[in-house]
Amino acid sequence: MKSVLVVTGTRAEYGLLYWTMKEIQNDKDLQLQLMVTGNHLSEEYGYTVAQIKKDGFHIDEEIDMIIDSKNKSAIVKSMGLEMIQMAQAFDRLKPDILLILGDRYEIFVAATCAMMMNIPIAHMNGGESTEGLIDEQIRHAITKMAHIHFTGAEYYKERLLKMGEEPWRVYNVGQAGIENIKRLKLLEKEELENELDLKLDKKTFLITYHPVTLESISTKEQIENLLEAITKFDAKYIFTYPNADYGNKLIIDKINEFKGKYKDVYVFHSLGQIKYLSLLKYVDVMIGNSSSGIIESPSFRLPVVNIGDRQKGRLRNNNIIDVGYSAREIISGINIALYDDEFKQGLNSMINLYGDGRTSKIIVDILKSIIVSNRKLLFKKLTY
Asked: How far is it, in rounded angstroms, from Cα 39 to Cα 49?
C-alpha cells in the first residue's frame, strides 16, 4: 500500500484538500498520513485542528510552531522550529509521497524537508500568480522542488511547462475549491442564520482582508481605508479573520475596534467550509483580497470587490471588480457590485474558469499510478 502524507497549516488550505484526503482515505490502495501545523493549532485562529478530527481524519503528527510576535523574524524562527520537528516526523512516518497545496511558508518547509529526504513531492496549485505576496516566490520555489504538479487551470499548466517542467509531470485537475461547492450540502438561508445567530435581512458584505506582504502602502492605511469605505453603506458586515502573515494582528485589532463602534458587525475566527460557502450564496458582495473571491465566488455569480495586488496575476472571471487601496476606489467598486445593472447582467451566463469539481478523483488516480521506486521520478531536468 502506498502512503501519501498530506500537510496542512490553515483552514483555507484544509478546505481545499478535504475531498482529496477523503478519496485517499477511502481508497484500498492508498494510506492517508496527516500532519497538522500552523494556524490549526492556534486558539487565536479558532483551533481548527478540532474540526479536522471532527471530520473523521486521524492526525499522525501535530507540529506546533507559531511564535507569537510582531517582529518579521518571528515567521522565520517559526519555520526553523517547524523544520526540526517535521524532519523528525518524516523519519517516523516514512511516507512514499508528500502531497501539499499552495504557497504558505509552512508548506515551503514541508517541501524542503521532503526534497532533502528524497521523498517525492506532489504539489497542487502551482503555476498561479499572486504578485503582491511573498507567496509568489514560495510557490515557484516549491514548483522547482516538486516532482508531480496538479494545476488548477490549463493556463497554469502551460505556465509550468514554460518554467521548464517536464510535460509528463504536469496535470491540469481543476481547482479543488470548486469540488467543495459541488459536493458539500450547503445550508439554506434560515439554517445559516441560525448557525451564525444573525439575520440576513439587509444588504450584507462578507469581508476577508489578509496582510499584503510586498506592498509599500502600510497595512494600517489599507485596513483603515477599507473600514472607512464600508461605513458609507447601510449594510451588515461579516468579517473573517486574516491569515497568520506579518501584519495580521493590526488588522484584527482594527476590525475589533470597528465592531465596538458600529452596529451590525459580526466577526468570526473561522466559519468552516459549509458555513463559509453557504454565505457566498446569500451575501450581496464579497470584499477584500482572499483567493476565495477569485476562485470559489464565480460559481455563485457573486460580485467581488478585490482590493490591491494580493491576487494580481490570477485568472479572472467576470464577477471580479479590481480596485486600489483608497477608500474612494473601494466605494466605487462596491457601488458597481450593488447597483450597476450591466455588470450584474453579465454574471448571469458566467461559467467558472476553474473547473467542474472532479479534482480529487483525478488526483487519486494519478497518485495510484505513480511508481515511487522509479529513479526517473526524483531526477528532474529542465525542458527549455
From this structure: 9
> What's the CA gap between 287 and 293, in Å, rounded?
8
Q: How far apart are the C-alpha atoms of 228 and 307, rounded to whole Å? A: 14
Dist CA 129 CA 313 (whole Å): 5
C-alpha distance from residue 311 to each of 210, 221, 292, 319 (Å): 11, 19, 10, 14
Amino acid at position 13, single letter: E
C-beta separation of 145 from 112 below 8 A: yes
pTM of the model: 0.78
**215 pLDDT tier (thresholds 50, 70, 90):** low
Q: What contacts 24+ positions apart, CB below 8 Å, involve 148-151?
A: 148/97, 148/120, 148/121, 148/122, 148/123, 148/366, 148/370, 148/377, 149/122, 149/123, 150/122, 150/123, 150/124, 150/125, 150/126, 150/359, 150/362, 150/363, 150/366, 151/125, 151/126, 151/127
Q: What is the mean pLDDT of residues 137-154?
A: 96
Q: Give the three cell numbers for residue 381.
A: 531536468
169-196 pLDDT per residue, tens: 999 999 998 998 989 899 999 999 999 9
Written in H, E and C, the secondary structure of 172-184 is ECCCHHHHHHHHC
Q: Is domain 2-173+358-378 in CATH 3.40.50.2000, yes or no?
A: yes
Q: Mind listing the pLDDT tens digit for each residue in 312-356? A: 888 899 999 999 999 999 999 999 999 999 999 999 988 888 877
| Distance separating alpha carbons of residues 24 and 28, to the nearest angstrom | 8
CATH class of 189-345: alpha beta
Q: Determine the residue type at 340.
A: D
Residue limits of CATH 3.40.50.2000 in the chain: 2-173+358-378, 189-345
Q: Cβ(79)–Cβ(85) under 8 Å?
A: no
Instruction: Calculate mean pLDDT across residues 258-282.
Output: 94
Cβ-contact 83, 112 below 8 angstroms: yes
